Amino acid sequence: MLAASEIGDGAVLDLGIGSGLVAEAVLQALPDAQLFGIDFSNAMLDLARERLSPFGSRVLLRSHDLSDPDAIDLPPLRYKAAFSIQTMHHLSDTEKAAAFAWTAAVIDPGGLVVVIDRVKVDQPLFQDWAVVWRGVDSKTPRTYANHVEELTQAGDRPALLQDQLAWMTAAGLDACCLHLYGNRAVLVGRKPR
Ligand SMILES: C[S@@+](CC[C@H](N)C(=O)[O-])C[C@H]1O[C@@H](n2cnc3c(N)ncnc32)[C@H](O)[C@@H]1O
Q1: Parts of the chain with a pLDDT under 70
Q2: Nearest CA to 58 among 111, 11, 94, 22?
Q3: Nearest CA-CA partner of 27 in 35, 38, 19
């Protein structure tokens, strides 16, 4: 999606860059683009810095907490896209909505937002989801309590798919879920031109 999005020599934001594994693939796929990566873990940023050193000045990394996006010291680049992989579930729902709003505000019109993250299934539909998913994964949780317990290990806070899309829409993005696999979703937003 990023490679097909006319990023050119514009910039891409990686929210929760971690060790830079995904950023590396993005930089390889977009040979002229710059990348600004944010993470609040200096240990992760050190790993990303090492991994992404071959890309030189195309990469900027900073320590920031996504739960306070307005405090992010954003380098003045032309942000054509933003992505966040397996990170948003660390934020509270209010913080997720604020992070989506900030992201939509800082990217250029026409810009792309890609979020790959966990999703929670709501209790009234849990058994229906489980019937479908059990055909694929024999470890599908038996009860809604097990589902929540599994999803919230280590303080994780995944949100419902519909809430995540609603926050993206409220941020002014055209948003949809392009792929869902069990409790993982690829959410995509476009900022209208
Ligand atoms: C599961 S890792 C994913 C890393 C990377 N996106 C990937 O897919 O390989 C989640 C990352 O989000 C970072 N993170 C979690 N909460 C954060 C926050 N509030 N602000 C900034 N980074 C955060 C963690 O430090 C970690 O590096």
Answers
A1: none
A2: 11
A3: 35
Please give the pLDDT value at position 146. Answer: 92
Rounded Cα gap, residues 111 and 82, in angstroms? 8
- Model confidence pLDDT, tens digit, residues 101-121: 999 999 999 999 999 999 999
Residue 34: its pLDDT value, please? 98
Give residue 108's pLDDT: 97
Pocket test for ligand 1, best of 21, 64, 87, 92 (most atoms within 8 A of CB): 87
Ligand 1 in contact with 44 (CB < 6 A)?
A: yes
C-alpha radius of gyration, the chain, whole number: 17
Domains in the chain: ranges and CATH: 11-119+158-190 (3.40.50.150), 121-156 (no CATH)
89-108 as b/e: b if 16+ CB within 10 A: bbbeeebbbbbbbbbbebbe
- Which one-letter DSSP state was computed for residue 186? E
